[in-house]
Amino acid sequence: MLRTIESLGPLAGKRVIVRCDLNVPLDGQVITDDGRIRASLTTLNELIHAGARTVVISHLGRPDGAPDAKYSLAPVAQRLCELLGNPVVFASDTVGQAAKDAVGGLEDGDIALLENLRFNPGETARDDADRREFASRLAELGDLFVSDGFGVVHRKQASVFELAELLPSAAGRLMTAELEVLDRLTESPQKPYTVVLGGSKVSDKLGVIGHLLPRVDSLLIGGGMMFTFLAAQGHPVGSSLLEEDQLDTVRGYLAEAERLGVDLVLPVDTIVASAFSADADHEVRAVDAIEDTAWGASGIGLDIGPETAKRFAEVVRSSTTVFWNGPMGVFEFPAFSGGTKAVAQALTEVDGLSVVGGGDSAAAVRALGFDDSRFGHISTGGGASLEFLEGKRLPGLEVLGWQ
Ligand SMILES: Nc1ncnc2c1ncn2[C@@H]1O[C@H](COP(=O)(O)OP(=O)(O)OP(=O)(O)O)[C@@H](O)[C@H]1O
Ligand SMILES: O=C(O)[C@H](O)COP(=O)(O)O
């Protein structure tokens, strides 16, 4: 049974550390999608109103265990303050003097945000003892711990796992809301059940496919992920995103899909660009002709093509349950956003349950003008929701009592 906030007892006057996933997309200092900040507000408002002294912690991006200004949470503190309508004290470090001063200065109902957890090597250390050492320094800043960063719950990291062992801990409201919907997808998805995969974290997400194949009726592969499949079928993919060391694994998935009778749908066309940029020249090409443009092997596939988009949309629309993770192309560049838009539109037309998972996927649908309410659920977790659907035991959930 997942422990919830009620299990922590009275909160007034207590220093409550809340692990959120405020890993939002940034363009310089500008937050391009604040969905993950908004999703954290329910828990934070509840703690504020209960008179807790709230200490918010999060990572942003993947800095290398040392401070790096481009991954600072300062813009997030500013946005959090606007959304809460409350001052947010921002500490320029995580376990140093600035954090101690910020937390020490909190009154009941106040809130502070500490700097990016991943500026400290202990947060993501492989060695258990190193993570534990960092977690114990974090634990000194709080009396209680609320884990609400669903997007990071698949990571065995100090602020997700060890900290929850060190302090009385419970799941926050976002965490429980996410689990309620995703549980429906694992327990009894209504058929036909389709999963759509794309995005750029290819090696992170390929592993999920083997576990999903026995559970789904159709699996559609687009985004950066498609090129490893196309290459596995013998197609040259130019300079597109490719995980060469995964080719054998992918061949295994293709064979397994056939054996299980799963409809594994790969793109038939792609938009090939001269370079990775918003204004690059581009042409639609069949997937066996990616290198047949004037750019030859330097051409890059940046979106699924129109014929593929049409086919994907048809499969999605005729499904009763759909889970989608990972944009179909580089949606941040308008010329390569068509595939993502077509799939998003089809999801809004599903007569059943449609779930969008992932920080970038959620950002994509919003950037393309789709309102959250047009989907059954928008999950803040990309990798996390996929690993949950795989049926994996997630460290950040187990430590909260989830079986
Ligand atoms: N063909 C492609 N080549 C390169 N990048 C691509 C391609 N297609 C999509 N992308 C990129 O994939 C990124 C999103 O991938 P990611 O796997 O991180 O998605 P997510 O699961 O929604 O996010 P998260 O895992 O952070 O929650 C986008 O920034 C998009 O530009
Ligand atoms: O964006 C995400 O999926 C989460 O914030 C986790 O980030 P990570 O993949 O860098 O651990």
UniProtKB/TrEMBL annotation:
Catalytically driven reaction(s): (2R)-3-phosphoglycerate + ATP = (2R)-3-phospho-glyceroyl phosphate + ADP
Pathway named in the protein's UniProt entry: Carbohydrate degradation; glycolysis; pyruvate from D-glyceraldehyde 3-phosphate: step 2/5
UniProt keyword terms in alphabetical order: ATP-binding, Cytoplasm, Glycolysis, Kinase, Nucleotide-binding, Transferase
Location of the protein in the cell: Cytoplasm
Pfam families xrefs: PGK
Molecular-function GO term, any one: kinase activity
Origin: domain of life: Bacteria
UniProt-listed Gene3D superfamilies: Phosphoglycerate kinase, N-terminal domain (3.40.50.1260)
Residues bound to substrate: 21-23, 36, 59-62, 118, 155
Coiled-coil stretches: none
CDD domains: Phosphoglycerate_kinase (cd00318)
Record EC number: 2.7.2.3
Binding positions (ATP): 205, 301, 332, 358-361
Subcellular location, principal: cytoplasm
Keyword Ribosomal protein in annotation: no
Similarity remark: Belongs to the phosphoglycerate kinase family.
Assembly, per entry: Monomer.
Protein name: Phosphoglycerate kinase
